Amino acid sequence: AQSVSQHNHHVILSEAASLELGCNYSYGGTVNLFWYVQYPGQHLQLLLKYFSGDPLVKGIKGFEAEFIKSKFSFNLRKPSVQWSDTAEYFCAVNPPAGTYKYIFGTGTRLKVLA
Amino acid sequence: AAGVIQSPRHLIKEKRETATLKCYPIPRHDTVYWYQQGPGQDPQFLISFYEKMQSDKGSIPDRFSAQQFSDYHSELNMSSLELGDSALYFCASSLRQDYNSPLHFGNGTRLTVT
Question: Is A45's CB within 8 Å of B105's CB?
Answer without folding.
Answer: yes
